[in-house]
Design brief:
binds magnesium ion, alpha/beta, eleven-stranded mixed beta sheet, five-stranded parallel beta sheet, Rossmann fold, 2 domains, about 350 residues, DHBP synthase, binds threonylcarbamoyladenylate
Length: about 350
C-alpha cells in the first residue's frame, strides 16, 4: 500500500538568477532532508527524488512508484567529487566520461564502497551515479546536501514523465511535492554505461549516443540483451515492460505501403487503431481511429522529446486499443527511441521482408 498525502505543487520563476534562493528549491530541499519524496525536472525526464542515504526515503520511492525491489536506483550528485564518496574505484574511462558529459544525460555504473543503503543498489556490488544537467535539479541536490536517488517519476511500467502534469497523473497524493520546471529537454532517459569492469558497456541507450561515448573512450560494447529482448539484461530495469500506455503497442518498420497494410489488417480484425508517426507522415494513412504526431524525422531529437507525451496522450483519449508506432532509423538518439518503443511494445515488432 502506498501512503496517502497531500502533494504540494511548487512552481519556479523562469527568470530568477539564483535558483537556490527560490522558495521552490528551498522547500524541495527541506522535504528531501526530511526523507520525503519530491519530483523535479532533469534534462531527460522528471525524477522522483529521495535522500539516497535514507532507507526510509528509498522505501517511499519504491512504494509510490510500485517499483520492483530488485531494480536499483540512480543516485544523483551535484559535484563530480561526490563520486569518490560512493565508488570504491573510478576507472580512467569513467573519469574521461565524467569530464566530457557531466553534468548531463549520462549515468555511470561504478563498484560501490557500501556507503549507500542496499535498497538503492538492490544488493548489487555496483552503484549508478549521475550528475544531471538541469539547473533546477542541480540546485535542489546542492541545497539538500545529500545524494538524491531518483528514478523516473512515473508509476512503474508507464511512460516516463516529461512534464509536471504527467507526474501529477501518476503520483498525485502519493508523494510530498512536485517541482514544476516546465517540459524537459531530451525526453528520453540518460544513457547508462557500465564502467565497473575493464570493458565499458552501454546497458541502456539514452541522451548521450554511443558515437559520442566512443569519441571519448573508444569502442564500447552494447549489452546484447538490449536489442534481442533477452531475459537477462545487465541493467535490471531493462527486463521489465516499460514506457507502455494502456493500449497495446506494435512497432512497424518498413515502407508507407507496408504501414498502411498493417492498419488495414488490424482494422479488419475489429481493432481501433491509433498511429504514432512523425510530422512528415501527417494525414497520410487511412482507416485510423486517431493519429499522434511525434517529432520530425529530420530532427530525431524532436522525436525523443515528444515520445513519452505522445504515448501518454493515447491513454487520455482512450479511443485506440492498438497503437501502431512507426520505426525510426537506429542511428544516434534513434537507438534510445527504438529501445523505448520496443519496450513499450513488449517487443512486438513487425518488419517488412
Ligand atoms: O535520465 C534518467 O536516468 C532518469 C532521471 C530522473 O535521472 N532516471 C531514470 O531512472 O531513468 P530509472 O530508475 O527509471 O532507471 C534507472 C536504470 C534502470 O534501468 C536500472 O536498472 C539501472 O538504471 N541501474 C541502476 N543501478 C544499476 C546498477 N548498479 N547496475 C546496472 N544497472 C543499474
Ligand atoms: Mg524509469
Amino acid at each position: 500500500m502506498s501512503e496517502q498525502m497531500k502533494t504540494r505543487y511548487l512552481s519556479v520563476d523562469s527568470d530568477v538568477d539564483n535558483l537556490t534562493e527560490t522558495g521552490a528549491v528551498r522547500t524541495a530541499a527541506a522535504l528531501l532532508k526530511d526523507n520525503l519524496t519530491v519530483a523535479f525536472p532533469t534534462e531527460t525526464v522528471y525524477g522522483l527524488g529521495g535522500n539516497a542515504e535514507s532507507r526510509e526515503a528509498i522505501e517511499r520511492i519504491f512504494r509510490a512508484k510500485g517499483r520492483p525491489a530488485d531494480n536499483p536506483l540512480i543516485a544523483h550528485v551535484a559535484r563530480k567529487d561526490d563520486v569518490y564518496r560512493y565508488a570504491s574505484s573510478v576507472s580512467e574511462q569513467a573519469e574521461q566520461l565524467m569530464d566530457a558529459f557531466w553534468p548531463g544525460p549520462l549515468t555511470i555504473i561504478f563498484p560501490h564502497n557500501g556507503t549507500l543503503p542496499e535498497a538503492v543498489t538492490a544488493g548489487l556490488s555496483t552503484v549508478a551515479l549521475r550528475m544531471p544537467g538541469h539547473p533546477l535539479a542541480l540546485a535542489i541536490i546542492e541545497e539538500a546536501g545529500v545524494p538524491v536517488a531518483a528514478p523516473s517519476a512515473n508509476t512503474s511500467g508507464r511512460p516516463s514523465p516529461t512534464a509536471a502534469v504527467h507526474v501529477r497523473e501518476d503520483l498525485d497524493g502519493k508523494i510530498a511535492a512536485i517541482v514544476d520546471g516546465g517540459a524537459t529537454g531530451v525526453g528520453v532517459e540518460s544513457t547508462v554505461v557500465d564502467c565497473s569492469s575493464e570493458k565499458p558497456a552501454i546497458l541502456r541507450p539514452g541522451g548521450i549516443t554511443k558515437e559520442e561515448i566512443e569519441n571519448i573512450i573508444g569502442s564500447v560494447e552494447v549489452d546484447s540483451a538490449l536489442s534481442a529482448g533477452d531475459e537477462a539484461p545487465r541493467s535490471p530495469g531493462m527486463k521489465y515492460t516499460h514506457y507502455a500506455p494502456n493500449a497495446a503497442v506494435t512497432v512497424v518498420s518498413g515502407s508507407d505501403r507496408f504501414f498502411q497494410e498493417q492498419i488495414n489488417n488490424a482494422a479488419a480484425q475489429g481493432r481501433r487503431v491509433g498511429v504514432l508517426v512523425p510530422e512528415e507522415k501527417k494525414d497520410l494513412f487511412t482507416g485510423v481511429e486517431e493519429e499522434r504526431i511525434c517529432g520530425s524525422v529530420n530532427d530525431m531529437a524532436s522525436v525523443a522529446r515528444d515520445l513519452y507525451a505522445s504515448l501518454r496522450s493515447f491513454d487520455l483519449s482512450g479511443r485506440s486499443d492498438l497503437i501502431l508506432a512507426m520505426a525510426v532509423p537506429e542511428t544516434e538518439i534513434g537507438q534510445a527511441i527504438m529501445n523505448r518503443l520496443r519496450k513499450a511494445a513488449g517487443n512486438r515488432v513487425i518488419a517488412e521482408k
